Amino acid sequence: MEQLIIEKFLEGKTALITGASRGLGREYANIFSQAGADIIINYQSKEEEAVKTKEIVEANGCKALIFKADVSDGNQVKAMVEAALAHFGKIDILINNAGYSQPKFFLNITEDEWDRMISVHLKGAYNCCQNIIPHMVEHRQGKIINMSSLIGKSGGAWSGTHYGTVKAGLIGMTKSLAGQLAQYNINVNCVAPAFIITEISSWRTPEQLKVHTEMTALKRTGNTLEAAYATLYLASPYADYITGFTMDIGGGVYMD
Fold it and tell me: Which of the residues 163, 229, 241, 254 is marked catalytic?
């Protein structure tokens, strides 16, 4: 997909993006910085990849701060948010993107694997929200976007029950937070991608990918730019009257 020219409607804003060292997280950092936002780049283990993301943000003319933190650890998230506020003075946008997939049959999922999936996806979003929302409430403004998946709506037999469970949970969390935080002018929305080609989707065989692609109305896979542009809209002033919404980004594979 050819990159679009983006208006600088996020100039002066700061966005914290979890899991931003690669994949969709990196694309968010790229597109959000093209729109003028400074970026806090969270990563857990791939420092070299996080540095590459930082270089992309800076090439777009914006500032970037890299911070290593496991989002499932509340103390690490607290330290990250404190460092971000000390560096930038504010956090206007939170993208809860950190996560991973683990396609397994339910009976083969261990208790540790189940707990880890919940810790990274759901507890990770909880930790980030707990530490950033008080700042947003104080300033009476903010945008929070949670990364779900169409698996959280459709069930998705191939992706793992624990994965589908946490992605459904993020949709519920989005609606609950949206209702509670609207009084503070904080918008909380969710995106639910499917068939976006990233490392997290690389578990599919070529045969599976072909079958899945045929399931979409558009008969093709999506790319990270398309997901990032849609997510950018929810973080923009153009979406100020949208909250509690889950946007499907899946080429029409699931329509509700």
Answer: 163
pTM value? 0.94
| pLDDT for 73 | 98
CATH architecture assignment, domain 14-246: 3-Layer(aba) Sandwich (3.40)
Token readout for 154 is 């459709």
Listed in sequence order, the residues at least 6 apart from 137 whose beta carbon sits closer than 8 Å to its beta carbon are 181, 184, 186
User: Of 69, 98, 81, 174, which Cα lies nearest the Cα of 136?
Assistant: 81
Angle 2-56-32 from CA coordinates, rounded to 5°: 70
- In the DSSP assignment, the letter for residue 196 is B
Confidence of residue 213 (pLDDT cuts 50, 70, 90): confident
Q: How far apart are CA 219 and CA 251, in angstroms?
A: 8
**126 noted as active-site residue:** no
Instruction: Give the SS3 label for residue 4.
Output: coil
For 134-141, the CB contacts below 8 A with 24+ separation are: 135/81, 135/85, 135/90, 135/91, 136/91, 136/92, 136/181, 136/184, 136/186, 137/181, 137/184, 137/186, 139/90, 140/184, 140/185, 141/92, 141/184, 141/185, 141/186
Q: What is the pLDDT of residues 162-196, one digit of tens each?
A: 999 999 999 999 999 999 999 999 999 999 998 78
Q: Would you say residue 201 has pLDDT above 60?
A: no
Model confidence band, residue 158 (pLDDT cutoffs 50, 70, 90): confident
